[in-house]
Amino acid sequence: MNRVGGNWLLGLLLPVGLAVGWEVMVDLGWARDHLLPRGSTVIVTLARLAASGELAAHVEATLQRVALGFVFGVLSGTLLGSVTGYWTLARRLFDPTLQALRSIPSIAWVPMFILWFGIFETSKVALIAVGVFFPIYLSLSDAIRGVDRKLVEVGRVFRFSHWEMITCVLLPATLPTYLVALRSGLGLGWMFVVAAEFMGAESGLGFLLVDGQQTGRPAVILGAIVAFAILGKLTDWLLATLSGRLLQWQDSFKPAE
Amino acid sequence: MLDIINVEKRYTNGHLALAGLNLSVAEGEIVAIVGGSGCGKSTLLRLISGLDVPTAGTASLDGTLIRAPRPEIGMVFQEPRLMPWLTIERNVAFGIRHLAAGEQWARVSETLSRVGLATNAHRWPRELSGGQAQRVALARALVGHPRVLLLDEPYSALDALTRSDLQDHLLDLWAYDRPTMILVTHDIEEALFLADRIVVMQPTPGPLRAEVKPALARPRDRLASEFIEWKYRLLAELDRASRRPTGDETFPAANI
Q1: Which of A150, A159, A250 sits opposite B77 (nearest CB)?
Q2: Is ipTM over 0.85?
């Protein structure tokens, strides 16, 4: 077996071990599964939802919201993070307000977003974008201010314009921090999509969670949670893989096996 | 002709780094600036490069004031300062990014050959030794064919053998289009080996302490008795410069 396959299997050891352990405990009569369904029940429930096409529709709706919110959050976070990182005046102008807004729990915006954007998609995407925005903004703005002055001087010797300085020196220099911020923003995007789908959605994995709770079907709730975990892990893996490719120039520490 | 006239540099924190300093460098001349730590050698180079501006006096190239970095002036820093996310060839292309792609790569490849790193074009900076990285920095400064090349202790972090190799190599590169070269160094032997003229800065801000024009034929031999004799003369001058209190004596205090 190749190394990548081996790593995947090692990562699956804990969740699969716990699921199998729970299954065995319920089978032996040591535990009851009416509140925490066993793994096989969750798999059967997910298979039934998949066969009916319901699961794909919910996954598609959630993915679409996360993707849109992520794109808007990343674009606005990158733009404002770059500007406030590069220009002191912009930092003095925007940063205090943004930091104050950051300290507001994003869920507190839900009533206002519904009022402004309605109950449908826009308010949900806006909420996710707010969640994604802050880690990107904060990390990038601070990382730009921490870029090695010596590299910036090289850009100055070669008479870089402000745009060239940002795109050719500052953003590449902050790439390692930025990519971690993207992963952290994406994680928050997945958290906020649940909150967003709690507010009057008719589809999506968050809706499936609420539906499972209201109809007393814990296996559906757990199925939705498992689907969130799989999708979250997959999208994070995609970003991590992309990071690895983009950061191959780094002379970094190789952890021990 | 590069002219530094009555230059003063005071930083915003009040620290006076340079005062009343004059220096003229002719086209194609190699000048080494020596002096103790903190005497303002690097500050002077930064003023010539346009990275800093003087608080009084002027630095000009052919009569045009230097107020910001200019394409005719290339600079090599103490550390290679390569962009770690760019391959070697892309680092070198940094200096000629406005040229058409074809011309860019032709010049990058020609310059990398001149510094002996043609086969390393696609490698990352982290894969290079200190000496190789400094040669890439030199290639990056030379690729735009600057008329003035400034070197701020470029080889100070390298071992003696690599340093003397790179000094030989620098003269070969200089001979290609003979830019005016101003080198800041702590290394007396390096100054003597490379420079047509060596100027000595005093420890406190003020006029240049002395200038030395070694009467040594090129190519210079570091082991020749004349070279060694000049080295001791220069050392004595440096010693005198560092010990003597700054009075009202004016440049040149000593010419040897």
Answers
A1: A150
A2: yes
